[in-house]
Write a structure and sequence with these properties.
The chain is of the alpha+beta class and about 100 residues long. The chain has one helix and six strands. It has one domain.
């Protein structure tokens, strides 16, 4: 009986777990992007033109918020965000709740 109860408990939690999609949209390289929100994943364009590291962040639903090459920050529409530029060699993005 304990094995059945444990199995039911695991199944109950398995159906209630949702994946976070904050990192489902990648912008990188020579103007490339990949969206993992679609099946199969789709490729697209990007303003990023670098051989260095990049970073992109989406919200919990997988909608792109912004992306950066470490020098410039673009919003979801590809417009440059008007703020101080981040240090060019460090790609750390901290989310504020």
């Amino acid at each position: 009986m304990n094995k059945i109860s444990l199995l039911l408990l695991i199944l109950l939690f398995a159906f209630n777990v949702r994946a976070q999609k904050e990192f489902n949209v990648w912008h990188f390289g020579q103007g490339a992007s990949v969206n993992f929100n679609t099946i199969p994943p789709t490729s697209g364009g990007s303003n990023v033109l670098t051989v260095e590291g990049t970073a992109s962040v989406a919200d919990c639903e997988g909608r792109l918020l912004f992306y950066t090459d470490g020098v410039t920050i673009w919003n979801r529409t590809g417009a440059i965000m008007t703020m101080e530029m981040v240090y060019w060699d460090i790609k750390i993005i901290l989310l504020h709740p």
